[in-house]
């Protein structure tokens, strides 16, 4: 019996922006290598809710996953991450964008300003592969997008843009958000775009817009002190400035 066992260790010491650090991927196999889960982690409700997700493999799914995390420099034992299979509804308020073909795991009660290491291991009958990642919650903060963006005419030729904080960000009084506004229009076929902010307010009045022109408005939310990154843009809201009679 000569089952050839192959161990692949890939060092991925790249930091993309302030994103989590992909520490290393380890694949132990005999035969076809199982796919290593590609894991993405973010904190949508600082300091409470950190989620990691990875896609359900399209073919040869693992028999199961083992998801653990621990403090990088801590003496304490490894904790198991709360695994949520694709398509299951959970009592935990999962990110609204959570799609049905993603595995998710939930990491409650992480300590502030602490490096964590997460290990997502896909176990196959013929071997296993692990994705290890280091992150600090502060670096991976990304709120959900603001909601209820509404745009209405205000005074003559002006617009009022209003929105509400993402409801999933529950510590708004302790960790306020700031907002960026993007508006886009077409100038004789050329796409144009302009940004406003950051603002702490949840409304802004815009002046000097062109009558007859159509604008698309979007808002993103970021932690006030600048932790992590801005949320995804909210879905665009369209408005056409009325033509004023001469
Ligand atoms: C280990 O865990 C205990 C209880 O949760 C905690 O009080 C202690 O500070 C932790 N030790 C380290 C080194 O993080
Ligand atoms: C943000 O946008 C990306 C790319 O469109 C998408 O994959 C992701 O699920 C979105 N995240 C949230 C929280 O809406
Ligand atoms: C990752 O988790 C797997 C499964 O629990 C374990 O076998 C492996 O040793 C872990 N890797 C590291 C580097 O801790
Ligand atoms: C956030 O976590 C803290 C500490 O566990 C808890 O006291 C608080 O109620 C949580 N807040 C929300 C909105 O989940």
TrEMBL record:
Every Fibronectin type-III domain range: 145-244
Pfam families: fn3, FN3_IL27B_N
Gene3D superfamilies reported for this sequence: Immunoglobulins (2.60.40.10)
Domain of life: Eukaryota
InterPro entries: FN3_dom (IPR003961), FN3_IL27B_N (IPR056621), FN3_sf (IPR036116), Hematopoietin_rcpt_L_F3_CS (IPR003530), Ig-like_fold (IPR013783), IL11/IL27_subunit_beta (IPR053073)
Nucleotidyltransferase listed as a keyword: no
GO cellular component: membrane
Keyword Glycoprotein in annotation: yes
GO MF term (any one): cytokine receptor activity
Signal peptide: 1-20
The entry's keywords: Glycoprotein, Repeat, Signal
Protein family according to the UniProt entry: Belongs to the type I cytokine receptor family. Type 3 subfamily.
Protein name: Epstein-Barr virus induced 3
Organism for this UniProt entry: Stegastes partitus (bicolor damselfish)
Record gene name: ebi3
